[in-house]
Amino acid sequence: MSSEAKIAGHYGRGRLEDMILAAVAREGKDAENLRAGDLAAVDEFHVGGLEATQELATQMELRRGLRLLDVGSGIGGPARYFAGEHGCRVTGIDLTEEFVRVAGSLTRLTKLDRLAEFRQGSALEMPFERDTFDGAYMIHVGMNVADKAGVFREVRRVVKAGGLFTIFDIMRTGEEVTKDGQTRDGRAAEAAIRYPVPWALSEEASFVATREEYREALQKVGFEIVRERGRRAFGIEFTERVMARMAQGGPPALGLHLLMGEKAPLMVKNILGMMKEGVLEPVELQARAV
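Predicted structure:
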């Protein structure tokens, strides 16, 4: 089985749309009158959730009518946010057929289907013409991509010169944090990742890289790095809040456990631990097509 097939299988849940709509009903919401924000607890599948997406939006040079590519669009949360709040026209592509189907359905229910659409396919061979998009983004996707240069090459092909490519991924840090909270020079980049994590049950489908490796891959295919920011403190604080809520009342009806399954608590615990240890860090990285 190819790595792409394994990744698509990891995310496929079966009956995901039914589970989400049942959870929406349990929260007292009307599926026929949903707003995009009503789904943020489940469709913003990344560290920081909607807060992180909103912060990214301030850096993305968004405008009404901007054509955006969402690489690894999942069930469409960020795409619906950029469409609904900023008037962008968003096209998402994702390996997992169920995610694409659910993304389309939720987008119709939130009445944003004129602005956001989704395609099933590989980011290594995208079904779009050259210079189709004004910009692109990729949120918590690179951890599943072995050939990052290959994906970035395709993004560069379909994004117009001058377009901004925004990445928000979990990366290896290259720093090690001691028990007293201090950092020291080390080789944390070689520290073993503890599984399961939200993007993989084992190392077979996990390809976490460093900032340096991202920068090199982007520059190799025609991007210029314009901004980067580590968000470890924010990621730790956000994840601790999530775990505290789960400890107090269990998982909410509508939450990321619907996507991650029964191992969700362990996945979240592992991510938090590795952020605290300095093994992993959520990083914003932006590059311009030249």
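Summary: The radius of gyration is 18 Å.
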